[in-house]
Amino acid sequence: MKSYVYEDLEIGHQFPILDKGRISTSHIMRWSAAVENWHRIHYDYRFATEHDKLPDVLINGSWKQHILIQLAKDSLGPTSWLWKMKFKYKKMDVAGDSLHGIATILDKQQTSEFGFITLGLQLVNQNKETSTEGWSISAIPFKGGVLVAYPFVDKQEYSLLRTPISE
Q1: What is the dihedral of CA 19, 138, 61, 30, to 10 degrees?
Q2: 133 CB contacts (<8 Å, ≥6 apart)?
Q3: Is the residue at 13 inside a domain?
């Protein structure tokens, strides 16, 4: 996995797509079990479609959140620190859908110690429909600078950072 520094990145840069492939009912059930989410809409087709009138068994929202976190972290590499994230669900994803994560640089800001990169994040299905979208802000080192220490959010300077308008 590539590690970036602040100077390597430009606004508008799109990172390689995170391809999660076709999500089966087995994938959904394993995730449900891992997070102990036993709502029947995630494993019982008849309940989901007949009782709740859904199109199929639903992919868990918490799994989609996890994919966005993986996308933000993998895009910038292991020397970055994910600081903030906000997203919204726009469309349901169901068993059989293929999910792809897209990350694009929306903004760059810097402090005296390191930079901040704002990513636009999207989960897109096989029909090119965006089901989940949002943004993240990550701290990233400067070229030749020190690694970003954790925790890094305790300074007044960071509270002045812009966040994307579309909250």
Answers
A1: 60
A2: 87, 88, 90, 120, 121, 122, 123
A3: yes
Alpha carbons 24 and 22: distance in angstroms, whole number: 6
Interval 113-129: pLDDT, tens: 899 999 999 999 999 99
CA geometry: angle 115, 117, 122, nearest 5 deg: 170
Residue 91: CB atoms within 10 A of its CB come to 14
Angle between helices 25-35 and 61-76 (to 10 degrees): 90
- CATH number for the domain spanning 114: value is 3.10.129.10
With tokens 């999207």, the residue in question is 122
Is 36 buried (19+), middle (13-18) or exposed (0-12) by CB count in 10 A?
A: exposed
111 domain-assigned: yes
Kindly state whether residue 54 falls inside one of the protein's structural domains: no
Which pTM does this prediction carry? 0.90
Q: What is the domain extent for residue 137?
A: 6-23+59-160
